[in-house]
C-alpha cells in the first residue's frame, strides 16, 4: 500500500532519517576490551592537545575577563564584572551586535533560500543533474579570504563590474567608505561562499525522500507548488533546522576571512561582526580584559546554540 | 511537462553562472596586464599576458612578500593541509577507539572533556591560544601552526559514530581468534574504515588548507606563510599601491583555490558522503 499524502500536509509527519550528528543515544558496545593502561595510551595524544590548546586557553579567557591589564602587560588588577558591564553598556558594542544580528539573518536566509531553490531544481532534472551538482558545490573548497579577494575585485572602485552595474540604477557604490555598501558586499560574498554546503545537504536530504513517497504525493497533489510546501518542505525540515545552526555558526565565526579582506584589514568606521571585534580589541586595541569578556559572552552564545542543537537532535532520534 | 523542465534548467544555469562567473573573471583578470585593467576596467576576454602572472607569483620573491615566492607558500600550504588532516585522523581515531572499545573507569569523563571542545571555535579563544603558543615558543613553527587546530574534537566524534555502527560480532570473532586490542585495531578496524578515512581526509585537508586567522597570527616569519595567509600581504600592498597588481593578486587567488577545489571535485562522492554523515 502506498502512503497517503493529502494536500494539507497532515500526514507529512515522518521525516527522512538523515544522520547528521555523532552523539546519538549512548548505546555501548556489548563486548569490550579490558586493559588497565591501553585506553589511556590511545587517548593520551587527544587529551593532551585538548588540555594544552583548548582547556588552558579557555580558562585563561575566563580568568582575564575579570582582570584589567595595563597596556604593557606588566600588571593586572581584579575588577570583577567591570569588563562585562563595560562591554554590554558600550554603544559601540551594541552597534556591532546589531550589525552581527542583521548580517547573520541575511546571510543565513539568502544562502539557505537560494541553496534550497537550486537543490529542488537539481533534484528534478534528469539530464545533466550531476554536472549541475559539481558546478554548484565546488565553491565549498574556496577559502573565505580568497572569496573575499575575488569579491573586492568585483566591487572595486575603479574596475569592478558590479559597481558599474549598480551605477546603471543610480547607486554609487563605495565599498570601504559607505557603511551600507560595505555591508552589502560582505553579505553577497558570504552568501556566495555558503551556498554550496547548504546545497549539498538539501540535495542529499531530497534524495533521501523515498521514490514511493514522491509518487504518492504526485498522485494526491497535482499542483507542484503546493506539493512542495505541504510534502517536500516538511520532510526537509530536520535538515533545515540543522543547517540553520550551521549557518548561524558560519556567519558568526567563519566569515572572519571575508570581513578582514573586504575591509582590507583597516576597519575604520566600517561594519564588523562580534568575532572580528574580539580580534580587533585583543590584538590591535590591546584591551585584553575587554576582549576576553567578549570571548566569554560568545562562549555563552555558542553554548546556548549547542543546547538548541542537541534538543533538535534528540527530537530527530524519534523520527528514525 | 517539457516547459517546466526548461524553467528548471534556466534556474540552475543562473545558479551556475552566479557560482562560477566570479572565479572565471578572476582568472581572466590574471591574464591581463594590471595597467590595462586599471585603465579599461575588468576585461571579459583573455588577455595577452598568458600565464605570466603565475610565473611571477610562483618564482619571484618580492612581488607581494619580500622574502618568499609562491612555491614556498605552496609548500607551506601543503604541509598545513596534509599535516592537519593526517594528524587529526590519527589522533582522533585512536581516541575514538579507546572510548568505544574499552571498558575503563574514566571513559565518560574523557568523553565529556573531549566533547567540550565542540563548544568553542578557535576564533573565540584566539587571544589566549596565541599567548599560550607564544609562551611555549611555538610561534613560527609548523607544530604551532598545526597542533592547536587539532584541538577541536570533530574527528573523534565522527570516528566514534562510525565505530559504533561496526557490528559487535567482528570483535567477538576476533577475540575468539585470540586477537588483542592492537591487532584488532590495525588489522580489522583500520581497513574497515578506509572510505571513512578518505572522506574525513578530504574535509580536513580543505579545512586546514583554508585556515586564515590562525596562520596570520602564528606565522610572522615569511618563510612560513601559506598561500591563504599570503592574501593578507596582498591587501597591504593593494591599499598602498597606485595601481594594484590585479593580475598577480588574482593569480594568487586562483593558485590558492586550485588544490582544494581539485580534491573536492575529483573525490566528490566520498567528500559528500563524509560531509553529510559527519558534519565536519
Automatic annotation (TrEMBL), chain B:
Chain ranges passing through the membrane: 78-102, 109-130, 142-163, 184-207, 249-272
CDD domains: TM_PBP2
Keywords in alphabetical order: Cell inner membrane, Cell membrane, Membrane, Transmembrane, Transmembrane helix, Transport
Any one Pfam family match given in the protein's UniProt record, by short name: BPD_transp_1
UniProt entry tagged with the keyword Transmembrane helix: yes
Domain ABC transmembrane type-1, first and last residues per copy: 74-267
Biological process terms in GO annotation: transmembrane transport
Recorded topology in the membrane: Multi-pass membrane protein
Localization in the cell: Cell inner membrane; Cell membrane
Oligomer and partners: The complex is composed of two ATP-binding proteins (UgpC), two transmembrane proteins (UgpA and UgpE) and a solute-binding protein (UgpB).
Function: Part of the ABC transporter complex UgpBAEC involved in sn-glycerol-3-phosphate (G3P) import. Probably responsible for the translocation of the substrate across the membrane.
The protein's name in its UniProt record: sn-glycerol-3-phosphate transport system permease protein UgpE
Lineage summary: Bacteria, Pseudomonadati, Pseudomonadota, Alphaproteobacteria, Hyphomicrobiales
Amino acid at each position: 500500500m502506498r502512503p497517503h499524502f493529502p494536500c494539507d500536509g497532515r500526514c507529512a509527519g515522518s521525516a527522512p532519517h538523515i544522520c547528521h550528528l555523532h552523539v546519538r543515544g549512548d548505546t555501548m558496545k556489548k563486548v569490550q576490551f579490558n586493559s588497565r593502561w591501553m585506553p589511556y595510551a590511545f587517548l593520551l595524544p587527544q587529551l593532551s592537545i585538548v588540555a594544552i590548546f583548548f582547556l588552558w586557553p579557555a580558562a585563561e579567557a575566563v580568568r582575564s575577563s575579570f582582570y584589567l591589564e595595563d597596556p604593557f602587560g606588566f600588571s593586572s588588577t581584579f575588577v570583577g564584572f567591570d569588563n562585562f558591564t563595560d562591554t554590554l553598556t558600550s554603544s559601540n558594542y551594541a552597534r556591532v551586535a546589531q550589525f552581527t544580528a542583521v548580517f547573520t539573518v541575511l546571510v543565513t536566509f539568502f544562502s539557505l533560500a537560494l541553496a534550497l531553490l537550486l537543490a529542488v531544481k537539481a533534484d528534478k532534472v534528469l539530464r545533466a543533474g550531476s554536472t549541475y551538482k559539481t558546478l554548484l558545490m565546488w565553491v565549498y573548497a574556496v577559502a573565505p579570504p580568497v572569496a573575499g579577494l575575488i569579491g573586492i575585485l568585483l566591487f572595486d572602485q575603479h574596475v569592478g563590474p558590479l559597481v558599474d552595474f549598480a551605477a546603471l540604477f543610480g547607486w554609487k557604490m563605495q565599498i570601504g567608505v559607505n557603511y551600507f555598501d560595505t555591508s552589502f558586499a560582505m553579505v553577497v560574498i558570504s552568501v556566495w561562499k555558503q551556498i554550496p554546503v547548504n546545497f549539498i545537504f538539501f540535495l542529499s536530504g531530497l534524495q533521501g525522500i523515498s521514490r514511493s513517497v514522491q509518487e504518492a504525493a504526485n498522485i494526491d497533489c497535482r499542483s507542484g507548488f503546493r506539493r512542495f510546501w505541504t510534502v517536500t518542505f516538511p520532510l526537509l525540515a530536520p535538515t533545515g533546522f540543522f543547517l540553520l545552526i550551521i549557518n548561524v555558526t558560519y556567519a558568526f565565526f567563519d566569515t572572519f576571512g571575508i570581513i578582514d579582506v573586504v575591509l582590507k584589514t583597516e576597519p575604520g568606521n566600517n561594519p564588523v561582526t562580534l568575532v572580528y571585534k574580539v580580534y580587533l580589541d585583543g590584538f590591535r586595541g590591546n584591551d585584553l580584559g575587554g576582549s576576553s569578556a567578549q570571548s566569554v559572552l560568545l562562549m555563552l552564545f555558542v553554548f546556548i546554540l549547542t543546547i538548541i542543537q542537541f534538543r533538535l537532535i534528540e527530537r530527530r532520534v524519534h523520527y528514525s | 511537462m517539457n516547459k517546466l523542465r526548461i524553467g528548471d534548467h534556466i534556474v540552475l544555469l543562473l545558479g551556475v553562472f552566479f557560482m562560477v562567473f566570479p572565479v572565471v573573471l578572476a582568472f581572466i583578470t590574471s591574464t591581463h596586464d594590471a595597467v590595462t585593467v586599471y585603465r579599461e576596467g575588468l576585461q571579459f576576454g583573455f588577455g595577452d599576458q598568458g600565464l605570466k602572472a603565475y610565473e611571477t607569483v610562483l618564482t619571484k620573491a618580492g612581488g607581494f612578500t619580500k622574502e618568499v615566492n609562491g612555491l614556498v607558500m605552496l609548500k607551506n600550504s601543503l604541509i598545513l593541509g596534509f599535516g592537519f588532516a593526517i594528524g587529526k585522523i590519527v589522533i582522533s581515531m585512536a581516541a575514538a577507539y579507546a572510548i568505544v572499545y574499552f571498558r575503563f573507569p574514566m571513559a565518560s569523563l574523557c568523553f565529556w572533556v573531549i566533547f567540550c571542545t565542540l563548544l568553542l571555535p578557535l576564533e573565540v579563544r584566539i587571544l589566549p591560544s596565541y599567548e599560550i603558543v607564544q609562551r611555549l615558543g611555538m610561534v613560527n613553527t609548523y607544530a604551532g601552526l598545526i597542533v592547536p587546530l587539532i584541538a577541536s574534537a570533530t574527528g573523534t566524534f565522527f570516528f566514534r559514530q562510525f565505530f559504533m555502527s561496526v557490528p559487535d560480532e567482528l570483535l567477538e570473532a576476533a577475540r575468539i581468534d585470540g586477537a588483542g586490542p592492537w591487532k584488532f585495531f590495525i588489522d580489522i578496524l583500520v581497513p574497515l574504515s578506509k572510505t571513512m578515512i578518505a572522506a574525513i581526509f578530504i574535509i580536513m585537508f580543505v579545512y586546514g588548507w583554508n585556515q586564515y586567522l590562525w596562520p596570520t597570527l602564528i606565522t610572522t616569519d615569511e618563510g612560513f606563510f601559506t598561500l591563504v595567509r599570503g592574501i593578507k600581504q596582498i591587501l597591504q600592498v593593494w591599499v598602498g599601491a597606485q595601481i594594484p597588481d590585479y593580475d598577480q593578486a588574482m593569480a594568487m587567488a586562483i593558485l590558492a583555490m586550485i588544490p582544494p577545489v581539485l580534491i573536492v571535485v575529483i573525490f566528490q562522492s566520498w567528500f559528500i558522503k563524509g560531509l553529510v554523515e559527519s558534519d565536519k
